[in-house]
Write a structure and sequence with these properties.
The protein is mainly alpha-helical. The chain has 4 helices and 2 strands; from the N terminus they run αββααα. The longest helix is centred in the last third of the chain and has 75 residues.
């Protein structure tokens, strides 16, 4: 009995998608190793996860230089039609390959740690700015509440004095009418 045909479409559940990616990635790298050994070919596999993590396999160290040399002669004609300002995926891949060629695994690990430290510093600065903003808004709120209270006191005392004046004025009017 054979396997059921799998429909190739995006897996919606995140956990299942990550498990599938992990299994298929390891299977792909295993197949690449087998192909390299069995057929005596130079082979490279570069995989980026959806979070940007790099996974790679190279059968020889010189494979990227050979690819760059081979692709630079064939891609000059393509680069002549430079009518768009966008970078194509092929150009990005070539740039990454050139940079990966210059970096070893320890350099990549160090770079990853530097990025993590920079991310932590950025998040810390963002949190500090948010706390400063909240603090200044609370202070402004307290100042406005104090100003409101003082204005209420002033308007409240004005209301009381105006009522007293009205009472006094009415008394004066009543006294004036009686004397007339």
């Amino acid at each position: 009995m054979g396997r059921k045909k799998l429909e190739i479409k995006r897996i919606e559940e995140n956990g299942a998608r990550m498990v599938c990616f992990s299994k298929r990635r390891s299977g792909l790298i295993k197949k690449a190793k087998e192909l390299s050994v069995l057929c005596d070919v130079d082979l490279a596999a570069i995989i980026f996860s959806n979070r940007g993590k790099l996974f790679q396999y190279c059968s020889t160290d010189s494979i990227l230089q050979r690819y760059q040399a081979e692709s630079s002669t064939g891609s000059r004609e393509e680069k002549s039609s430079d009518d768009s300002g966008f970078i194509t995926s092929d150009e990005i891949l070539q740039k990454v390959e050139r940079e990966l060629d210059e970096l070893c695994v320890t350099d990549l690990v160090l770079l990853e740690k530097q990025i993590e430290v920079a991310l932590i510093q950025t998040r810390s600065a963002k949190t500090q700015r948010m706390l400063d903003t909240v603090s200044s808004l609370r202070e402004e709120k307290n100042n406005l509440a104090d100003e409101k209270r003082s204005l209420e006191e002033i308007t409240g005392s004005n209301r009381n004095t105006s009522k007293k004046k009205m009472i006094v004025d009415l008394n004066n009017v009543a006294d004036d009418r009686m004397t007339e």
